[in-house]
Amino acid sequence: MKKARGLIALMVAVVTLSACVGQPDFTYVRDKAGTTYFKVPSSFTQLNANPIELYLSGDHPNSQAALLRTQRVWSTAFDQSAEPSVNHLLGSPDPFVYATVHQLTQEQRDTISLNGLRDFVLPVTEETRLLYLRQTLAAGQAPMFHHFELLGDDVLILDDGARGVRVRFNYQIGDDVQTFDHTAILDEKGATVSVMLIGCQSLCFRQRGAEFDKIAGSFKLLRLPG
Q1: How far apart are CA 17 and CA 90, in angstroms?
Q2: I need a surface site. Which of 49, 54, 67, 215 has the fewest CB within 10 A?
Q3: What average pLDDT score do residues 180-203 get?
Q4: DSSP state of 225
Q5: What's the pLDDT tens digit per position in 107-139?
Q6: Of the candidate ranges 37-41, 64-68, 142-146, the one whose mean pLDDT is the lowest
Q7: Roughly what angle, to the nearest 10 degrees, separates helices 50-57 and 64-72?
Q8: Mean pLDDT of the region 137-158
Q9: Which parts of 28-143 fold into alpha helices (H)?
Q10: Can you tell me the distance from the alpha carbon of 5 to that of 179, in angstroms, rounded to the nearest whole number?
Q11: 8 A C-beta contact, residue 188 and residue 161
Q12: How far is CA 98 from the centre of its chain?
């Protein structure tokens, strides 16, 4: 009987160990060029971010612009909702992470600035917010974003001449206030911009800000050999 109990205990220990080994705490992510790295908790579900790219760019999926964008842009998304969806980018009670790396065109290289990094995904600076409002109203549409609140704005001076910004802000979207944590990094050559946008409802963000700091803190550029 003692041998049997010992065998059972050993089997339980092996199964428990196997479960732990088989479930890593984080998903580790690199872009297709291997130059940008970050990690998110394994409780997030990875999504195809192509619908987000089409939404943000306004390109028709069958257009030449959309084709060229796929050649210059890498992106991915992660959702912690029980029902993950790319539609949660701009509104969800659960955390959502969007990351993208853009190979800049020559025109973009010539004009990119810290304010351009701030506005890379959503309108953040006053000038871009006013432009968004004018364009939306001119198109006969109701603005989606209301009552902007700036929560933090830090300039990042990074190794080897890379630079960037980390901006935290609120927008009222529909009936809820959504908080966003936006990090954008321009590489040392001025050739690529790497962006991470973390979002969830403001109450969620206040409660879990330390977790989001860890995710944003893992977002880094990697120097490849050669």
Answers
A1: 39
A2: 67
A3: 96
A4: P
A5: 999 999 999 999 999 999 999 999 999 999 999
A6: 64-68
A7: 120
A8: 95
A9: 50-57, 64-72, 106-111, 114-118, 126-138
A10: 53
A11: yes
A12: 3
Q: Provide the residue type at 153 as one letter.
A: D
14: exposed, middle or buried (Cβ count in 10 Å: 0-12, 13-18, 19+): exposed
The continuous run of DSSP H or E covering 20 comes out as helix 2-22
Locate 113 and state its tokens. Answer: 């600035």
Structure tokens at 203: 């109450």
The residue to which tokens 């987000």 are assigned: 52
Q: Smallest Cα–Cα separation from 186: which of 155, 217, 150, 209?
A: 155
Displacement of CA 65 from its chain's centroid (Å): 23
Dihedral angle over CA of 144, 69, 181, 117, nearest 10: -100
Cα–Cα distance, 100 to 55 (Å, whole number): 14
Opening angle at CA 110, ends 105 and 114, nearest 5: 100
Q: How far apart are CA 128 and CA 118, in angstroms?
A: 10
pLDDT over 50 at 96, yes or no: yes
> In this structure, are residues 115 and 143 in contact, taking their beta carbons and an 8 Å threshold?
no
pLDDT beyond 60 at 7: no
Q: Which residues have a Cβ under 8 Å from the Cβ of 147 and sit 6 or more positions away?
A: 170, 171, 172, 177
Type of residue found at 157:
I
Residue 49 near residue 100, CB atoms below 8 Å: yes
